[in-house]
Amino acid sequence: MFSGIDEVDWASMEHAYGPADDVPELLRGLASDDPAEREAALDGMYGAVHHQGDVYACTLACIPFLFELVVDPGVQDRGGVVELLTSIGGFDLDEDDEAEIDEDEIEGAANYAMAAAAVTAGAGVFFELIADEDPGVRLAAPLALATLHRHPVRVLALLRERLPVEPDEEVRLALVEAAGRVALRHRPLAERVGKWLGLLASRADSPGLRLAALAQLARCSPDGLPGDVVPVVSGLLREMRSASEESGGRQEPAGPGSGASPGGIPAREDDEPEPGPDTTPAAAAAVDSDPVEPIEPVEPVQPVDPEPVAPAEAGRGEHVATPTLVGQLRSLSAQENAGRGAPWAADLLRTLHVGLDDRVGDRTALLADQLRSPDRRQRIDAVRMSGGLIRAWRGPYEELVALVGEQLADPEPRLAEAASHVLEELFGLAAPAADALAARLAADPGGWVKTWAGGPPGLGSTVKALARIGDPRAVPALAAALEREQVAHDVGFAVGCLGAAARPLAGVLRRRLADVELDENAYDRASPLLAGLTALRAGEATPEVLRMLRGAPEYRGEWLRTAALRALGAFGPAAREAVPELRALIRRPGTASATEAAEALWAVSGDADAVLPVLIEGLQSDQVHDRRAAAVALGALGPRAAVVAPRLRGLLAHDELWLRVDAAIALWEVSGRTRETVAALLTAWEQNRHVRVRVAECLARMGPVPEGSAAAHVLRSELVSVRRHNAMDGGYGSHDIHEDEKLLALCRQALRGAGKGSTP
Question: For 414-428, how does the pLDDT look when each residue is reduced to its tens digit (9 = 90+)?
Fold first, then answer.
């Protein structure tokens, strides 16, 4: 094995962490008899050689040796190597990607293309691995074929042929998933795959297999889903629970059939979908770049040993606890799935939800049914999926949120914790669970504040969720958090969410701020207190805030001064004793602190003559951030700053989108004219979805949006969209739901004209 590996000039190549001269050792480690060494080697391959999906020259050089590993039956854990090859070769570079590649990315793009070509060229070996004795290899091979092989018609034929004789339930599910992947990658075959999946979904005797078929049907051919998909899926989940209970907590795999495919689908030619234009060799050739053989030449697959195999145990290789990332992920997965009869059910349901996409009503009904399940693990999955649904899609979620709230009383800590984390992100949408949150808060004072080894303490998710609703029952927990030696870093934000209900906390916020030592840790200790006082507009704390302003240390002193100036500005005329200090600060025009001080001075004294020159100079700063701050501050002056209208108008053509938005809003505020502002704001709205809240705030303040106008059309289009404006694939922010709900409220406000009016 590994003939020629030492002839490769590995030292001349690099991976994510430097010279690639350690790659031969990693490759040999993958063939080791020691499970820990194999796992460490696989971790090294993903961590360095294929770091975050990257393909380096050394990655390309590894491909022939990885193929040697997967075809050698003496190597253990080959399924992991098959998955690695699939990841290396499975990158699709479509035409849109190619158009966006710049000069610095050309080499990387070429590596991806060469990797795809090299792995695809050798993908024929996965046909043999589909019947390998190792279930772990058989589990990885179908997706490798679906992702990498050039002949999807042959792949589909093999998947269908293999399904009746495959004894391992989890591998059977992988065969179905691979068929769905083929349909997604080769759309002319989607109808054919959909017909087969529809048969499986209606006839298979395994509820897990029927659920898998429905999940893939939702992904590749959603029109083929049954109209009553929610009760069908709910029934399958009940069947799976019953089967798990009867087998003592584990799903037994179905054995190979005799002359019939799983679920009673006859293995007869007349059960084959009618040949259509997408199933002929000629049509298949249109899908692939190479000629495609018809289905008939595929050689029969020999059945493996029919003895039942436990899906999650036998044949997967001997796994041991290791300090690698792969080992940690496997350990977490094992903990999560411990005792589950069908650990793959959650993945199937997630796939189904992705396929159902914008069918929010069906998805909500399905999750509501899951949340009523007697199976706690199923409810944990449903809680998490509920968070994903609400995060990405708009809809009526009162019932779903109330059911999530009910999980807070469950004695299973993981379930209650998952529910509180989901509710924390919902802000006002969590109102149906307010009583449940308050009950959990009262029952668990030890969870009011969470401590971490590597950072400041933070509020518990139940406290944050209740505060973000604006429920005053969160006040005692915040009061207790303020009495701790180290104040929770997010207490100020929670105070702001509570608003007037948190007014009784002003005294302790002020007292704790007075105790903050002005050393290098001053900002960390003072910032949550200043945020709370700012939110409460607690002008009586002006002396304590001035102490921060005057004594800010060198380390993070600028941050501390900014927080103090914001507090003084929020206090308004109640902070009049700070005027001399603020006047002194604005004598350094052109600096960020001068702009911040001028903004605070205007709020406290209303002295436009003093602050206007400072803000005009700030508008000419070389830093975009400083120019934005000056524009916002000038807008606050309103007509008193009308003289800067031409300067603001000139910024409407600036390259920086956010500066254009701030300048447009300020232009309306100082001039009262809407035409230029609205045109600039609507252009920005289309260019960047993340500016929409800021734009909608301005439109709402302008007053009635004329019916039939471009602005009215944009706002109404936003309101009828089911997708949240800031929903992202593969990531999210903790305030995304709150921001989107705020956008919807502002759109409605602008359309009904609850603003201050405007001058055309």
Answer: 999 999 999 999 999
Nearest residue to 147 via CA among 203, 187, 89: 89
Contacts of 39 (CB under 8 A, 6+ apart): 77, 319, 320, 322, 324, 326, 327
Q: Give the pLDDT confidence of 668-708 residue by residue, as tens digits.
A: 999 998 999 999 999 999 999 999 999 999 999 998 899 99
Integer Cα distance of 87 and 68 in angstroms: 17
Alpha-carbon distance values, 576 to 165, 542, 569, 605, 635 (Å): 83, 9, 10, 7, 22
Superfamily of domain 8-92+102-240: Leucine-rich Repeat Variant (1.25.10.10)
Contacts of 751 (CB under 8 A, 6+ apart): 705, 712, 715, 716, 719
Q: Which residues pair with 261 in a beta bridge?
A: 265
Q: What is the CATH number of domain 606-685?
A: 1.25.10.10
Angstrom distances, CA of residue 208 to CA of 111, 212, 237, 383, 666:
39, 6, 8, 21, 59
* Residue carrying the six token digits 């996409």: 357
pLDDT tens track for 484-504: 999 999 999 999 999 999 999
342, 242 Cβ separation under 8 angstroms: no
Helical segments of 499-587, H only: 506-514, 522-536, 542-551, 557-571, 579-585
638 φψ region: left (φ > 0), alpha (ψ -120 to 50), beta (else)? left
pLDDT (tens digit per residue) in 197-250: 999 999 998 999 999 999 999 999 998 999 899 999 999 998 888 877 666 554
State the greatest distance between any 2 C-alpha atoms of the chain, in Å, as a whole number: 93
Query: Is it true that domain 445-573 has CATH number 1.25.10.10?
Result: yes
pTM: 0.81
Q: Is 404 helix (H, G, I), strand (E, B) or coil?
A: helix
Closest CA to 130 of 159, 87, 173, 151: 159
- Reading the block at residue 314, the tokens are 């036998």
